[in-house]
Amino acid sequence: MQQDHLEQARRVVARVLAADPLHGHALALADRLAQRSRARLYAAFQPGRGVVVRWHDAPSDPALHLILAVFRAVPALPGRTSTWITSTRCPADAGEHTFPIAGGPRPSPASASLCLARLGEGGLQYLAVHEAISWPTPPGP
User: Fold this and answer.
1) 3-class SS at 34?
2) pTM of the predicted model as reported, rounded to 2 decimal places
C-alpha cells in the first residue's frame, strides 16, 4: 500500500481472507483499502488540442470534477509565475476531456497539475492525482 500498489494489495488481502475470514490484520487492511479510490487519470499535452485527460473507475457523483492548474513564467516579471485554474464536471465513471490551452499549436511553455476530486462537507477530497506534465514551445517558424 505504501508504494501505491493497491490492486495487488487487494488481491493479497482477498486471498488471506478467503483462507481465514477472521484474520485481524487482513480485515484492517481490507477496511483501509475500501476507503482508497480506484480512480485513475491519464493525461498528456497534445499540441493544437491542449491537455487531453482520460479517467476510469471514478465513483458516480455529481460533485466529481477534473481540476487543472497551469503554471507559466511571466516574461515581463522575472521569477514570477501566472496560474490558471479550471475544472469540469465528470459526468461518468470513465471518459475523456480536453482542456484547450491558449496559444493554439504554439503555446508558451508551461507546466500543469491535474486531479480528480470532489467537494464535500469536509472540503476537497482527492480521488486521483496525475503527475505534473510540461510542454515546451514547439520548434519551427
Assistant:
1) helix
2) 0.73
- Say whether pLDDT at 4 is over 70: no
Query: Between 24-35 and 6-19, two packed helices, what is the crossing angle to 10 degrees?
Result: 140
Mean pLDDT value across residues 46-72 = 92
Q: Following CA atoms 64, 113, 110, 134 in sequence, which dihedral angle do they give, to the nearest 10 degrees?
A: -120
**Percent of the chain at pLDDT exceeding 70:** 89
CA distance 59 to 61: 6
> What phi-psi label fits residue 3: left (phi over 0), alpha (psi between -120 and 50 degrees) or beta?
alpha
Architecture per CATH, domain 40-135, reads as: Sandwich (2.60)
Which residue ranges make up each domain of the chain?
6-35, 40-135
Rounded to whole angstroms, the Cα distance separating 56 from 92 reads: 9
